[in-house]
Amino acid sequence: MSRIYWICQIAGWGAYAAALFGISTAYSGWHIELAAAYALFAVYSIGLTHLLRRAIRRRDWLALPALQGLPRVFLAALAVALIQTSLIVTVALLFAGPQSGFTEVRQVAATASGVTVATCGWAAAYVAIVWNRRYRETRLREMELQLTLGQAELRALRAQVNPHFLFNSLNTIRGMITENPARAQEMVTSLAGLFRHALEFRGAQMVPLKDEMEAVSQYLALETARLEERLRIETEISDEAARRSVPAMVLQTLVENAVRHGIAELPQGGLLTIRAALTGVGMTSEALLLEVENTGRLKPVSPNGTHTGLANARERMRLLCGENASLVLSETGSGVVAARAVIPKVT
pLDDT (tens digit, 9 = 90+) per residue, 228-274? Predict the structure, then answer.
């Protein structure tokens, strides 16, 4: 049983009994018998309202719809108030007789109305406390469910991204084994570096951009071995941006999309540019602006799901960084496709 509950019971009914005693003495003067009667009133009021609480809990009235549960609660509270009033009058007459003041109908009616208001007020307070606690518990369960769902969604999305990248790398190596064995060995070394990176950050949802860039560099080493001079690379990453955390595999997805669906399909190849900088420096809401640009044209979404990786990256950013995160793919007038990701600072 809650300690706070008993403290509130004793303090509340004790204070109310003292107030009633003060009103009664104004009519009939101070009498030790009357004081004892109201002290006893406080005791049995505590007991009766506790029994009312047990009845509410045992019958689970507060789990019913309000129009069904509340009438039951307040009818029971009225019954308790009637019992309390009867006990007050009976005990006072036994202890103090006519000096108690309860020989007057006016005094009995005033006491009955006051006790009824107090007991119904007790019931209303109890209903409010229980409903508030249940609301907070429901909200907590909803938050836990959303968190669990979000984690499951993140695992599912990452499971779609990682195998796609792995298969792409293996196909690249397979194509080089017969053409250039020495270069294929270098590619295997780069792939081993990628595996090491994946193992070191296994299970991490957010990683520093500089660590993500190391994995991207390994990937680009694989693609450079295959595309040779057709793939030209430029990077512009500020020191502050490199220390910021980003959703794992997001930059990898943007770079892979730029190479696979852009530069690799051009006979002459093209330029891949990676930029990262903080926006709104000096402000508490500063965000990371991540840009990946490549030579090429923006293709419409096709039924075979060529933009699945970007859709997954966008959804992972939303889950991890909030609704203010964004990822936009656009084409400039100069034949350049740009992916721009805004990643808010996660606190």
Answer: 889 999 999 999 999 999 988 889 889 988 988 889 888 899 999 99
pLDDT tens for 46-92 read 999 999 999 999 988 988 888 898 999 999 999 999 998 888 888 77
CA distances from 55 to 15, 61, 76, 89, 123 (A): 25, 9, 9, 25, 12
DSSP per residue, 100-150? GSTTSHHHHHHHHHHHHHHHHHHHHHHHHHHHHHHHHHHHHHHHHHHHHHH
pLDDT at 103 over 70: no
Spatial strand order in the sheet of 326-331: 231-237, 270-279, 287-295, 336-344, 326-331
For residue 177, CA distances in Å to 171, 174, 260, 312 come to: 10, 6, 20, 32
CB 9 within 8 A of CB 53: no
Q: 202: which 2 tokens?
A: 């296994």
Cα–Cα distance for residue pair 272/212, rounded to 1 Å: 17
Question: pLDDT-based confidence at 150, cuts 50/70/90?
Answer: low
Which two tokens mark 238? 């500020």
C-alpha 216: how far from its chain's center?
32
pTM comes to 0.52
Query: DSSP characters for 6-70?
Result: HHHHHHHHHHHHHHHHHHHHHHH---HHHHHHHHHHHHHHHHHHHHHHHHHHHHTGGGS-HHHHH
The strand pairing partners of 235, in sequence order, are 274
Distance CA 139, CA 248 (A): 30
Q: DSSP string of 286-321?
A: -EEEEEEEEES-PPPP-TT-TTHHHHHHHHHHHHHH
Q: How far apart are CA 179 and CA 181, in angstroms?
A: 7
Mean pLDDT computed over every residue of the chain: 81
Q: Tokens standing for 167?
A: 């298969």
Torsion of CA 256, 259, 264, 267, to 10 degrees: 170
Place of tokens 């509130």: 8
